C-alpha cells in the first residue's frame, strides 16, 4: 500500500470514529481521559523502555544533547502526561456551548452551537509528551486525532498511543479516535496535507521550517503556530527599573520558547539612561546583543543586521535598536515581527493606547513580560499551541479553539 | 511590470492603508460609508453607462441571458447598492468588542478584543453589486479590500470603485482601502493567492470550480463559501402537509441559490403516503426528479445516480431517495452533503435531537425550509458569503466574521 493510501485509510477510520465521538457525552469523554491517564501510569515501565530505545538510537546517531533531552521521558514526565489528561477531564466541555441565540421576527429559533471539527491532524517534533497532550485535548473537544510525531520518537509514541487506545476501547469509545499516522518519511506528511475532506484541520508544531512547509503545501486548512520574534519596547515614559526587570525576564527566563523576547527597542530620550544598565544586565546573563549604532557604542555589542532584527534566536541573543518614538517602535515591529507577542513598558496612557491599538500581534502586553503569552498563564487549563495566524484562532489555543460551530434553526413549518 | 509585481504593489498599498483604517473610529468609517452611498447615487449615470458597455460586450459575445441578467445594473439595483452601504453604516462596529476578559491570579488583566484582519481579497464572478457590498462590509470591519471581479464586469467595477475611492478620499480615509486587483487573466488571481503576508484572507465567491481552485492553490488562508447540496429529510413522524410545503419552498422558491434544496430523503414508513403527493407537486412546478427505485415507480421520474445525489443542480432538478430511518438519512447526508444546510421535517423529539446532533453542516434546520440559511434571514444585517468550512467561520458571515482578535495583557511590572 502506498504511503498516501495508508494515510487515507487511517484518516477514513478517524472520520468514522469521529462520528461516534462527536455525540459522546462529557461523562463518557472524561471517563476515557481518566482511564487513559491510569493506563499511562500502569504501562510506565513499558513506555519508559520504549523511550530508552529512542534515546539510545538518538545518542548513537549523534543527536545534540538538548534534542535528546526533549526526547527523554522519566517517571516525572510520565506522571505529568497522566496529570495533563486528568486536568483536561476537569475542564468544561466546549461542545454544545451556545455561542449566540435569538428568536427571529418570523418566530424561527436560531442558535449557534459549538461542535467538534471532526478530525484533527497534529504534526510535531521530538517531545513524546505532545502525543498524550494532543490526544487529550482533541478528545475532550470531540475530535479524532491523527498524530504524526517525529521518527526519532517512534518507539515512545507507539507505546503511548497503544496504551491510550487500550484505555479508549475499555471506556466504550472507538479506539480509532486516537491514531498514529503510518510512515516515517515526508511522504506521509504530504499525504496528510492532501487529505482534504478526510482531515478538517492540521496543526503543525515545531520549527519555523516545518511550519512554513505545511502552510505552503497543505490543501487541508492549517492553524499556524508558534514562531515568535517578540519585541519589548521601552518608552520614554517607562519606569526604567521595571523595564530592566521585564527585558531580563522576557529574554533570559527561558530562551527556547516562542514567547521569549528576541528584540529590544528603546526610545531615544531614555537611551542614555537605559542602555548602559540594560547592556550590562543582559551581558551579565550571557546574552549576546546585536545592536544598532547606539547600542554598538557599548563593549561586546555586535552590529545588528536586518536578519538579526527578523530572527527568532531561541538562545541567549537579542537584537536591539534605539527608535525616535512610539511610532518608530510600531514601524519597526510592523516590519520585523512575526505577530506573536509585543510588549511596551510605559507610564504615559496615550502612548500605551496608541501602541495597543496599532500593534497587530496575537498578544500585546503592557508593563509585563512577553513570557505570559501561554495557555497555562492565561488560565485556559490546557493548550495545544499558540496560533500566530489571524483566521479562526489567534494566541494560545485551548479547548474552545479546537471546535467549530453550527447553526441550529427550529421552526414549525416555516417557508419563505 | 509583471502581473505578480502589479498585484503585490496594490496589496502593499492596501496593507499600508489598512494600518490607518484599523484604528479609525466608527464615526469616521460610518461617514465614509454614507459618503460612498451618496457618491454611487450621484455617479449613477456614469456607472450605468459603464455597465451598458459590459452588457453590450457580453451580449455580442453570446453570453447566456441569465448571466447577462446578473451583470446588468439599473436604477433599482444601483439604489440597492447605495442602501446596502447605508445599512452597513447602521450596524454596530465589531472592532474593539471585548470577547472575553478576566483578571488572572497574579493580577494581570487579560482581554480578548476583536481587531480587523487587515487586508481581505475578494474573488468573485459576474454581479457588479458585490463590488460595493464587499467594500462596505470590509471597510466597516476595518479591513482594506482587494477586489478581483470578473473581466465581464470590468467597466462597471472600475466605475464603482473609482466612485467609492473618491468618496473615501473626501472622508479622510486612505482611498487605497478599496482597490481593484489589476489584470484580467488568471495570473492576477494566482498572484493574489501567493501574496501571503500581504493579504490576510481570501474569500472566493462563485461557482464550485472557482472555489475549488482557490482552496487548492492558495497559500493565503481561504474562507470557502457557498457550494450547497442541501437535503430535506422527511421523517416517519413528519406532518406530511408541512413536509410538502417545505420541500416545495426549499426546491422551487429560488433555484439558483446555494441554500436551495437539491436532495430529498423520505422515511420508508411514509413513502406510500408521501411520494405520490410530493412527486406530483414537484412535477407541477416543473421539477425533474432523479429518483431511486421507489421514486422511479412514478411517471417521469428518471433513475438517480451517485453523481445526481452529489449534485448542486441550481435548477429545477432534485435527487430523491427513500431511506430506512433517520440513521439512513444521516448516512446518506454524510456521504453526499457539501455541509451547507440540511433540514428535517419531523414531530418526534428523539429523532429531531439525533438528526441535529449527528448532521455536521453549517446549518441544521428543523421543520423549516433550507432557504433560511442566509445572513439577511438570520438578522445579521449584512452578509459577505456563506462559509461551508469549519475553520474560523461557518454559515452566513456578517461583520464579526470579518474580524480576527488579539489578546491585550496589562500588568504593572509583572515577570515570571
Give a quick set of tags describing it.
homodimer; 416 residues; alpha/beta; Aldehyde Dehydrogenase, Chain A, domain 1; Aldehyde Dehydrogenase, Chain A, domain 2; 2 domains; 7-stranded parallel beta sheet; 4-stranded parallel beta sheet; 21% strand; Ald_DH_C (chains A, B)
Short précis:
Chain A has 15 helices and 16 strands. The first copy, chain A, has about 425 residues and is an alpha/beta fold.
What can you tell me about this protein's structure?
A seven-stranded parallel β-sheet of chain A has the order 10-9-11-8-7-12-13, sandwiched between helices. Chain A has a four-stranded parallel β-sheet with strand order 5-4-3-6, sandwiched between helices. In chain A, strands 1-2-16 form a three-stranded antiparallel β-sheet, with no helix packed on it. The first copy, chain A, is built from 15 helices and 16 strands. In chain A, helix 5 (75-90) runs parallel beside helix 6 (129-140). The first copy, chain A, has two domains: 3-224 and 392-410, 3-Layer(aba) Sandwich (Aldehyde Dehydrogenase, Chain A, domain 1); 230-372, 3-Layer(aba) Sandwich (Aldehyde Dehydrogenase, Chain A, domain 2). The relative contact order of chain A is 0.13. The first copy, chain A, is globular and about 65 Å long. The first copy, chain A, has 416 residues and is an alpha/beta fold. Chain A starts with a helix and ends with a strand. The first copy, chain A, has helices spanning 3-22, 26-42, 44-60, 65-71, 75-90, 129-140, 154-170, 186-193, 208-217, 240-252, 271-284, 293-296, 306-310, 326-336, 349-358; strands at residues 98-103, 109-116, 119-124, 144-148, 178-180, 201-205, 230-234, 261-267, 288-291, 302-303, 317-323, 341-345, 363-368, 385-387, 395-397, 403-414. Strand 13 of chain A pairs parallel with strand 16 (403-414) of chain B.
Amino acid at each position: 500500500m502506498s504511503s498516501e493510501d495508508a494515510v487515507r485509510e487511517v484518516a477514513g477510520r478517524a472520520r468514522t470514529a469521529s462520528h461516534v465521538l462527536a455525540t459522546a457525552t462529557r461523562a463518557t469523554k472524561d471517563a476515557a481521559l481518566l482511564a487513559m491517564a491510569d493506563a499511562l501510569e500502569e504501562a510506565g515501565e513499558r513506555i519508559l523502555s520504549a523511550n530508552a530505545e529512542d534515546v539510545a538510537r538518538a545518542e548513537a546517531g549523534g543527536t545534540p544533547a538538548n534534542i535528546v533531552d526533549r526526547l527523554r521521558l522519566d517517571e516525572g514526565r510520565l506522571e505529568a502526561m497522566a496529570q495533563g489528561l486528568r486536568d483536561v477531564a476537569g475542564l468544561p466541555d466546549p461542545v454544545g456551548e451556545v455561542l449566540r441565540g435569538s428568536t427571529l421576527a418570523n418566530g424561527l429559533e436560531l442558535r449557534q452551537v459549538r461542535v467538534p471539527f471532526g478530525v484533527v491532524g497534529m504534526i510535531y517534533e521530538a517531545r513524546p509528551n505532545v502525543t498524550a497532550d494532543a490526544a487529550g485535548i482533541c478528545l475532550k473537544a470531540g475530535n479524532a486525532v491523527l498524530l504524526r510525531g517525529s521518527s526519532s520518537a517512534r518507539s515512545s509514541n507507539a507505546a503511548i498511543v497503544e496504551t491510550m487506545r487500550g484505555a479508549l476501547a475499555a471506556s466504550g469509545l472507538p479506539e480509532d479516535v486516537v491514531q498514529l499516522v503510518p510512515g516515517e518519511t515526508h511522504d506521509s506528511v504530504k499525504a496528510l496535507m492532501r487529505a482534504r475532506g478526510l482531515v478538517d484541520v492540521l496543526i503543525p508544531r515545531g520549527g519555523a521550517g516545518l511550519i512554513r512547509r505545511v502552510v505552503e503545501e497543505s490543501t487541508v486548512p492549517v492553524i499556524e503556530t508558534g514562531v515568535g520574534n517578540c519585541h519589548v519596547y521601552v518608552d520614554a515614559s517607562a519606569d526604567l527599573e521595571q523595564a530592566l526587570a521585564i527585558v531580563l525576564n522576557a529574554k533570559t527566563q527561558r530562551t527556547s520558547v516562542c514567547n521569549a523576547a528576541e528584540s529590544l527597542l528603546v526610545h531615544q530620550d531614555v537611551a542614555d539612561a537605559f542602555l548602559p544598565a540594560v547592556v550590562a544586565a543582559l551581558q551579565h546573563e550571557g546574552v549576546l546583543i546585536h545592536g544598532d549604532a547606539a547600542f554598538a557604542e557599548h563593549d561586546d555589542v555586535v552590529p545588528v543586521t536586518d536578519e538579526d532584527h527578523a530572527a527568532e534566536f531561541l538562545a541567549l541573543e537579542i537584537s536591539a535598536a534605539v527608535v525616535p518614538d512610539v511610532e518608530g517602535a510600531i514601524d519597526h515591529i510592523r516590519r520585523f515581527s512575526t505577530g506573536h507577542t509585543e510588549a511596551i513598558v510605559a507610564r504615559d496612557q496615550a502612548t500605551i493606547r496608541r501602541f495597543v491599538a496599532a500593534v497587530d500581534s496575537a498578544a500585546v502586553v503592557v508593563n509585563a513580560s512577553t513570557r505570559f503569552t501561554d495557555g497555562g498563564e492565561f488560565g485556559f487549563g490546557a493548550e495545544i499551541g499558540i496560533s500566530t495566524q489571524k483566521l479562526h484562532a489567534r494566541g494560545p489555543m485551548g479547548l474552545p479553539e479546537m471546535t467549530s460551530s453550527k447553526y441550529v434553526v427550529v421552526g414549525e413549518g416555516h417557508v419563505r
